[in-house]
């Protein structure tokens, strides 16, 4: 059973390339070999019809062997053909690479685009990569913990998606930008090694290679140093490449390490592409970027944390932090992993002491009242024996994009949105009925 990938006629004999999840097989339809019920349906069959075919598997003749097909030495001589469903003519050719088809059309008919060989491969490879990560984590005693999707709004930099509470009028949840606080609380809870394949959400302005929702391998470890996290992560990525992509080459092993200052001075970016041959799709150049500044200025000139406010600082910079002096020279225990000029992940050794966390909040201009309102649960948790801990969160979408040599992450996400956050398949976002808005205590105003 499967879909008609292509049809060819040679006189009275028809040839179907039948496609299912395992690939293609050629079906030979000879009228004299068919049962009576099948003879009347063959002429009407077109590409993308869904068929059930019964027949005999036989070797192809020497001249008919197709070396480009995995099943190119055999074919199926049909004895019965049943049409399970017909299909309209698709808006683009599915039996060819859809890369050059208008992207908005592909996203509108994503279920058809996903039938193409390249897109099928991308999504199946994504599954293999995620399965590898999950298996690797379990082999190293990590516990998979699902953290809440509806949570308290505690802005960490990007704008959050807001969810109104029907049962608690005037109150709101947000969708998590990351499981940052929950994974730290999991360390306080004593799990020591946590991970999840986490869905994250950011209500950012339109950017071509960003999605409002994305997936990351989120993990956290207790009783570790920065070196422990770097070595674990590096070993995991090296194992990933060796096991799943042995034809690809890691250009430098161990991964080179650069300080943030060194990277900016030498390459003008904190995401340097260190490949010897950027045109080689099999060269993988990982690099660690270390010692990020703890603080920076935002567009309005206010002091803000470069990564997030839960990063610890270098031991030799703690005195400056507590005294509030020379803040922009203070270095965080923060690190990024870069691959071929793309940031794969940011991580850090976290703050686990209440007084240190409060000091960071104070330097960021967060009042005592606001600290309690936004982060009181974290500060209280640190009073109950929080262990030293740190972690990382590599982005799944970008990892798959780079390993599959695709130009953007939309090519490796099954149901992607446009750069301006529209779902062309489901036509979202969309208006809601007035009844639903009233129940959620929402009033739409014409005023901006």
Task: Describe the structure in your own words.
With 448 residues, this protein is α+β, with helices and mostly antiparallel strands. The protein has 3 domains: 2-85, OB fold (Dihydrolipoamide Acetyltransferase, E2P); 96-223 and 387-443, 2-Layer Sandwich (BirA Bifunctional Protein, domain 2), CATH 3.30.930; 248-350, no CATH class. Helices cover 26% and strands 24% of the residues. The protein has helices at residues 36-39, 103-108, 110-113, 117-139, 180-188, 226-244, 260-267, 318-323, 354-363, 368-381, 396-403, 434-439; strands at residues 2-10, 13-20, 23-29, 50-59, 74-85, 143-144, 162-164, 172-174, 193-201, 213-222, 249-250, 257-259, 283-284, 286-290, 295-297, 303-305, 334-339, 342-349, 389-392. Strands 6-9-10-19-18-17-14-12 form an 8-stranded mixed beta sheet, with helices on both faces. A 5-stranded mixed barrel has the order 1-2-3-5-4. β15 (295-297) and β16 (303-305) form a beta hairpin. The mean pLDDT is 93.
List the helices and strands and how they pair.
Blueprint: E1 2-10, E2 13-20, E3 23-29, H1 36-39, E4 50-59, E5 74-85, H2 103-108, H3 110-113, H4 117-139, E6 143-144, E7 162-164, E8 172-174, H5 180-188, E9 193-201, E10 213-222, H6 226-244, E11 249-250, E12 257-259, H7 260-267, E13 283-284, E14 286-290, E15 295-297, E16 303-305, H8 318-323, E17 334-339, E18 342-349, H9 354-363, H10 368-381, E19 389-392, H11 396-403, H12 434-439
Parallel strand pairs: 3-5, 6-9, 11-13, 12-14
Antiparallel strand pairs: 1-2, 1-4, 2-3, 4-5, 7-8, 9-10, 10-19, 14-17, 15-16, 17-18, 18-19
Helix pairs in contact: 4-11, 9-10
């Amino acid at each position: 059973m499967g879909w008609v990938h292509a049809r060819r006629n040679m006189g009275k004999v028809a040839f179907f390339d039948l496609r299912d999840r395992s690939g293609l097989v050629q079906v030979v339809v000879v009228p004299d070999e068919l049962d009576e019920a099948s003879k009347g349906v063959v002429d009407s069959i077109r590409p993308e019809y869904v068929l059930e075919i019964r027949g005999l598997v036989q070797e192809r003749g020497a001249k008919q062997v197709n070396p480009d097909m995995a099943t190119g030495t055999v074919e199926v001589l049909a004895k019965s053909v049943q049409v399970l469903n017909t299909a309209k003519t698709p808006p683009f050719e599915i039996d060819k690479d859809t890369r050059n088809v208008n992207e908005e059309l592909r996203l509108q008919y994503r279920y058809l685009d996903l039938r193409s060989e390249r897109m099928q491969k991308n999504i199946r490879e994504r599954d293999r990569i995620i399965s590898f990560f999950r298996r690797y984590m379990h082999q190293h005693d990590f516990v998979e913990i699902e953290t809440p999707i509806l949570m308290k709004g505690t802005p960490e930099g990007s704008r959050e998606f807001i969810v109104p509470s029907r049962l608690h009028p005037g109150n709101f949840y947000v969708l998590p930008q990351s499981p940052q606080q929950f994974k730290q609380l999991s360390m306080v809870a004593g799990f020591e090694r946590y991970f999840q394949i986490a869905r994250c959400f950011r209500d950012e302005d339109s950017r071509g290679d960003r999605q409002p929702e994305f997936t990351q391998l989120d993990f956290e470890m207790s009783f570790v140093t920065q070196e422990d996290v770097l070595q674990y992560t590096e070993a995991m990525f090296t194992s990933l490449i060796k096991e799943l992509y042995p034809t690809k080459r890691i250009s430098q092993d161990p991964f080179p390490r650069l300080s943030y200052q060194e990277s900016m001075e030498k390459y003008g970016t904190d995401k340097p592409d260190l490949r010897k041959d950027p045109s080689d799709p099999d060269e993988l150049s990982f690099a660690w970027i270390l010692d990020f500044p703890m603080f920076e200025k935002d567009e309005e000139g206010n002091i803000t944390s470069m990564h997030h406010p839960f990063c610890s600082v270098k031991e030799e910079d703690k005195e400056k932090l507590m005294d509030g002096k020379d803040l922009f020279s203070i270095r965080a225990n923060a690190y990024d992993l870069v691959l071929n000029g793309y940031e794969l992940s940011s991580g850090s050794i976290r703050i686990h002491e209440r007084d240190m966390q409060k000091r960071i909040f104070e330097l960021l201009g967060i009042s005592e009242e606001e600290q309690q309102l936004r982060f009181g649960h974290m500060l209280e948790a640190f009073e109950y024996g929080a262990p030293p801990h740190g972690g990382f969160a590599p982005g799944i979408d970008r990892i798959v994009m780079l390993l599959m040599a695709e130009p953007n992450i939309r090519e490796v996400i099954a149901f992607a949105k446009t750069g301006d956050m529209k779902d062309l398949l489901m036509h979202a976002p969309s208006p809601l009925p007035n009844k639903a808005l009233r129940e959620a205590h929402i009033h739409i105003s014409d005023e901006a």
